[in-house]
Write a structure and sequence with these properties.
Layout lengths: L2 H10 L10 H26 L2 E6 L2 E6 L3 H24 L15 H10 L25
Antiparallel strand pairs: 1-2
């Protein structure tokens, strides 16, 4: 699955918590959210002055304190990000409730990262057919 298809699929299935999401769909959508946050943080800083450049001996950094555009973007992607995470866990034949393990500091995030980088479970599981492997239609007649 390519970047554009993954983003379109994830946004089309905005609040769909059933079914499965391929590894590529999940990671392309995460990249979209990450890049969107960077771009909107820069725009927020230019329009609303919400960021500042910090420097000192041997370092330089940009700190963004958020802004209205990046906040709206984050809120708009909250439900689709949770939904694609649940569908990704379904692809591994795990319950979507595993997403709640993220609330355990450090360990929870590492466990989810381990899950999310795993390849899809081949074939059909209890959550549906493997994504991208739609069987051809049966000819009538």
């Amino acid at each position: 699955m390519d970047f554009q298809t993954a983003v379109r699929t994830s946004l089309t299935k905005y609040a769909t918590f059933s079914g499965r999401a391929a590894r590529s769909e999940y990671w392309w959508f995460v990249l979209f959210a990450f890049l969107g946050q960077i771009v909107l943080s820069i725009v927020d800083s230019m329009l609303f002055g919400t960021g500042r450049f910090m420097h000192g001996p041997g370092y330089a950094s940009w700190v963004s304190n958020g802004g209205p555009l990046s906040t709206i973007f984050t809120l708009a992607l909250l439900v689709p990000m949770i939904a694609v995470g649940v569908r990704r866990l379904h692809d591994l034949d795990k319950s979507g409730w595993w997403l709640l393990i993220a609330f355990i500091p450090l360990i929870g995030g590492l466990i989810l990262l381990f899950f999310f980088v795993q390849p899809s479970q081949p074939g059909t599981n209890r959550f549906g057919p493997q994504p991208g492997n739609t069987p051809p239609p049966v000819p009538m007649g």
